[in-house]
């Protein structure tokens, strides 16, 4: 009976420690690849406007992310318009029509113009996320990081917890 109580207390202690104290629910991670930027918080994928809403608690990271979000919108509009202007003459050429290659050239120009704006969005978003995460880490005033040591002592088992 004594062992079952001890085991129960150890399980409860570890469950509370790993379940509550080690969570960082408000930190946001950024993943960037060829297809764009992905924002993740607690294994949930976020859109840029959702990240902006999450940053309302910190004015400096919010203003930086708002600027990044504006760059994202402009970049997407330029890229989609450029893609349409490139695709229309290609579709016309595929159906034996007379393509307007000047339109495709204008679309290519818009598509190329969207690239530096997209890069600027990535840089600003990364800076805003870093600032947001630093603010959250700095506001956590209670760092509970115990150290555990298990040992055998003859016929008994000991658990030492150092705070």
Give a verbal description of the structure.
- The protein has a three-stranded antiparallel sheet.
- Helix 2 packs antiparallel against helix 3 and helix 3 packs antiparallel against helix 4.
- By secondary structure, it is of the alpha+beta class.
- The chain has one domain.
- The longest helix has 39 residues.
- About 6% of the residues have low confidence.
- 13% of the residues are buried.
> Which range does the strand content fall in?
15-25%
Number of domains: 1
Low-confidence stretches: 16-24
Judging from the principal axes of the Cα atoms, what is the shape?
elongated
Structural class by secondary-structure content: alpha+beta
> Total number of helical segments?
4
Largest sheet, described in full? 3 strands, antiparallel
SSE arrangement, N to C: HEEEHHHEE
Sequence of strands across the biggest β-sheet: 1-2-3
What proportion of the residues is helical, as a percent range?
Answer: 55-70%
Overall mean pLDDT stands at 81
Number of strands: 5
N-to-C CA distance: 28 Å
User: What is the alpha-carbon Rg in Å?
Assistant: 27 Å
């Amino acid at each position: 009976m004594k062992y079952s109580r001890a085991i129960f207390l150890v399980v409860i202690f570890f469950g509370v420690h790993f379940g509550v104290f080690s969570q960082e629910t408000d930190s946001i991670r950024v993943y960037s690849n060829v297809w764009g930027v992905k924002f993740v918080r607690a294994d949930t994928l976020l859109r840029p406007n959702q990240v902006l809403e999450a940053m309302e608690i910190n004015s400096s990271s919010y203003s930086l992310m708002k600027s990044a979000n504006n760059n994202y919108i402009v970049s997407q509009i330029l890229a989609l318009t450029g893609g349409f202007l490139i695709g229309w003459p290609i579709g016309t050429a595929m159906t034996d029509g007379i393509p307007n290659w000047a339109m495709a050239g204008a679309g290519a120009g818009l598509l190329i113009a969207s690239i530096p704006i997209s890069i600027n969005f990535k840089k600003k978003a990364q800076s805003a996320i870093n600032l947001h995460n630093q603010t959250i880490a700095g506001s956590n005033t209670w760092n509970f990081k115990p150290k555990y040591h298990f040992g055998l002592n003859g016929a008994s088992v000991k658990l030492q917890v150092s705070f």
